[in-house]
Fold this sequence. Notes:
By secondary structure, the chain is mainly beta.
Amino acid sequence: xxxxxxxxxxxxxxxxxxxxxEIVGHWFFYKKVFRGSEMPEPPEATLRLHFEFYxxxxxxxxxxxxxxxxxxxxxxxxxxxGKDLVDEITKVDPKNHPSCSRDPDMQLGKIxxxxxxxxxxxxxxxxxxxxxxxxxxxxxx
Length: 141
């Protein structure tokens, strides 16, 4: 009986954790949460920020501003356990705009560990800015 109870608890705990495949897909940034307040991108915003995760453990991050010639693209390999995203940048597009090289997300070989979770169909990525938290919220395309 104890074994059956223990197995049922383990099964429930395992089923309640997000599946790592849940992150696979094409995501676009559409709002931030800062100090508990949602901040949707206004209609006049020109930033287009995309994150693609593939089932083979690779990803692609890229962005640009509408009307500008400032595309930044990089590829990486990742691991995600439903809570933390560990991401290593494996390739940076040599055709990137010169400003891209100043961004930490465009540094070849950089490894980051970032809290990332799925909530109500959105992907949320937590960044610490000083003493504050900034959450980037992404929708699946």
